[in-house]
Amino acid sequence: MAERMVGKQAPDFTMEAVLADKSFGKVSLQENIKNDKWTVLFFYPMDFTFLSNRNHSDV
């Protein structure tokens, strides 16, 4: 199991994402911080299970 990082600074990352205009593009945590953009890091178990998909629609 990975170490819990509650209260610690998140490591930088760059990844593919669906953007506001529904296109795909790269996003970077450091770029969002630099440009003063809000960022929500959302972690959950059991990716793509019935239960997790149902709960994510509430977020």
UniProtKB/TrEMBL annotation:
Residues 6-54 form the Alkyl hydroperoxide reductase subunit C/ Thiol specific antioxidant domain. GO terms for molecular function: antioxidant activity; oxidoreductase activity. InterPro entries: AhpC/TSA, Thioredoxin-like_sf. Keywords: Disulfide bond. This is Peroxiredoxin. It comes from Sporosarcina newyorkensis 2681. The gene is ykuU.
